[in-house]
């Protein structure tokens, strides 16, 4: 075990593409963690999706051994944290495991909204923050301007910012020296009862569940019987080790150390992020602060496009949950889409990631329904039910009022798109809280109902700002709202998969858009098709698909019989994917397209 | 007696029309004596398989069977007469192009035993004929029609409508001109773009546009009104006749009766005891010819139809006819009543006015026939 004075624990905060992973790679390389032949770009992001999207989903750590200019050997623990608001709680626990952060800013781009939210979290966690200006070698780099921006927007002293190029390896030692010199060493008491923070966990097919920990007090050793304070479960520690980034077993983890343990645990659902691990025989009096059970905030239905894939979907969800206890699912049945699951996610990105992993790793063709937030329905009898599926909307007679979640959104946008962004926020019932300028860019803070954001806010924001706006949000409580259930009816029958909960002021616009869209998507049939959007019994929008006027083969003689019969038989396959609404048949593909399209 | 319709396919044309997806081929030279021998050989082979049947019609289709030497036609008809008994009113139809060359053979064809010709007039407008890639002019067609009327006891001709730019008014004018030339039978087909044709390519390129569903519907409806008013109602989707003058050979297809296919790519349906077989001859002319010359026939396969396939074919073909599918015929072929065969699928189609069902038959209404693809989809798929 290293003495506390020679340990530095740090996280890296950066916007996507600002060079976090490249810097991590350079630090690992410099400290000899991997041979050159073992290096591949972005060592830490091990999932394909992580590598492709440049985001980190699971926290990871690397122990770096660095001999500083003062001649002393240091243990530097790099904590790679998830970088997205959906994982804000995980981020907060990762940050709680460190004493400082590197704030990496692209010197040619400047500060982005995502950076802001994370840097404020780091400040809240009491971190010492070392600004690092990356990509200093680019012709477009403006270190002085970005330095000023960091000071203006974040309020951090950026005079000592380290200028580097992670790509070329320029001044990597400057970063390492700053870590040693400027970050405080951890504190802790080796003799006190064990207190270790459960930072994250994942399932490894060889080792079982691997738990990432930060020891605060006491010592973790193989054979020690530990207790998880939030869940109450007790386990005997099997292995103790660190990542270099290769997993290396070591005899013990002491105060200030970051590393991993295994303890014969079968599923990550038993390892709650933020839990405190203590010694069973000599437990700590108090757990570490900040533990919260995770709550999904966005829900959607996931249905297999081919009903035969239902079992496969169920098994795949179970497998994914082995490694990601933060999403939930329960069976759901839809008249329009058949059997599927209602799934809860930490946010929109999380939802997208799970969907993408199901498609990619499990080869599933899925139909997701429109995302819904979690509403609070207050009933006239004084009780409250949480609601994450629009079809569960209580009878209006029994409903006293509805509450919906709000967020605080931070948007950074170049001047020329500010008008469009403000208009978008206003359309989405936003309330402006702040508007400041940093150079040519504006920082806008809005309170927005999450319901308006999950719809298609992010896509619209990108489109109105030509991709220049950056966006981040935090949950910001519940507030009453005039929310109604909007149904889509086909010849009078409601289509459950298309039901949504919307604010009354948005209902007509969304209803009209959905009816128009369906009109385009539903082919003409023998019968006229009325498509309506309705709140209760009140129709707010209507479109009609005219009946077919003519659809018949001109010629059909003896030679055509087999061919035409086979065509009809082929149609049978197609009709399996049709859903019956009274006399009307709607191709499943129309639902899929309707659910996919945003609010244009 | 078990009735049998005989179809003979002549697979050659002078040139390939851009809309045509039939089994037709252009060859520089054709050894007609060799082809005649092969057709006769296959006919003899089929006669062994269908002993005891009575031939009710013979139909020469193609290709362009009017390019056959009248002697070939005569030899085939003579052979049919030798192999089978034939009905006293046996109908013998030959498809012909209304060119002057082919019209010159009418007398000889009549002599050979052809009693009915079906002329591929297609349009009465030279620009339209050019677009359709036809080798004749409107004037030539009129002359050929006059000659056909004078030569054969019965004749019919085809027109293709719903052509690019055609309006209801211009089509009605063309129909009026056609009716002045017509006998007791007319086939009026809407132009459709079939995959693999020259039109499929040029249509995809955007060289021309066709009337959309609504416009095509209006043209179809105008056609029905005009033809009914002159006593030539549609007995089938695209075929009009004075009552009693329907093409008996084609009725055999639509009524689900037995028919024999002779020649390249010809299809047949043959009943044997409780089983019904779908037969198919080799499609490529030279392959078929080689097969006949080596084994005596060009049959590629003969497949027993499953009960639901028979049911589908009866409904698919029979509902094209105004008379519909008679209950007794459906029961004889499937052992089922319509209610048992189609169950709950019938109700919405009956209620919607697309089908009608009474003690005698299941019929598509005019509205149902006009959207028969969709009706069949709901009924069978």
Provide the descriptors you would attach to this structure in a database record:
heterodimer; A: 600 residues; alpha+beta; eight-stranded antiparallel sheet; six-stranded mixed sheet; 13 helices; 32 strands; B: 381 residues; alpha/beta; TIM Barrel; Arc Repressor Mutant, subunit A; 2 domains
Write the CATH architecture name of the largest domain in chain B.
Alpha-Beta Barrel
Largest sheet of chain A at a glance? 8 strands, antiparallel
Strand content of chain B: 15-25%
Looking at how many chains there are and whether they match, the oligomeric state comes to heterodimer
Helix content of chain B: 40-55%
Largest Cβ-defined interface = A-B, 28 and 49 residues
Q: Considering DSSP H and I runs of 4 or more, what fraction of the residues of chain A is helical?
A: 25-40%
Poorly predicted regions of chain A are: none
List the helices and strands and how they pair.
The complex is a heterodimer of chains A (600) and B (381).
Chain A: E1 7-14, H1 20-30, H2 48-53, E2 60-67, E3 73-80, H3 88-96, E4 100-106, H4 113-124, E5 128-134, H5 143-154, E6 162-163, H6 172-182, E7 195-204, E8 208-217, E9 225-228, E10 234-236, E11 239-243, E12 247-249, E13 258-262, E14 276-279, E15 298-304, H7 310-323, E16 328-334, E17 338-345, H8 348-361, E18 366-368, E19 372-373, E20 375-379, E21 384-387, E22 399-414, H9 418-427, E23 431-438, E24 441-449, H10 450-464, E25 470-481, E26 483-490, E27 493-494, E28 500-503, H11 504-521, E29 529-535, E30 538-545, H12 561-576, E31 578-581, E32 584-587, H13 588-596
Parallel strand pairs in A: 1-3, 1-4, 4-5, 5-6
Antiparallel strand pairs in A: 2-3, 7-8, 7-14, 8-13, 9-10, 9-14, 11-12, 11-13, 15-17, 15-18, 15-19, 16-17, 20-21, 20-22, 22-24, 22-25, 23-24, 26-27, 26-28, 26-29, 29-30, 31-32
Chain B: E1 2-10, H1 32-49, E2 53-62, H2 70-83, E3 85-96, H3 100-103, H4 106-112, E4 116-122, H5 126-131, H6 138-151, E5 154-161, H7 168-181, E6 185-190, H8 198-205, H9 213-229, E7 234-236, E8 239-241, H10 248-254, E9 259-262, E10 267-272, E11 275-281, H11 285-295, E12 299-304, H12 307-318, E13 325-326, H13 327-334, H14 338-342, H15 346-351, E14 355-357, E15 361-364, H16 366-370, H17 372-380
Parallel strand pairs in B: 1-2, 1-9, 2-3, 3-4, 4-5, 5-6
Antiparallel strand pairs in B: 6-8, 7-8, 10-11, 11-12, 13-15, 14-15
Helix pairs in contact in B: 1-2, 2-4, 7-9
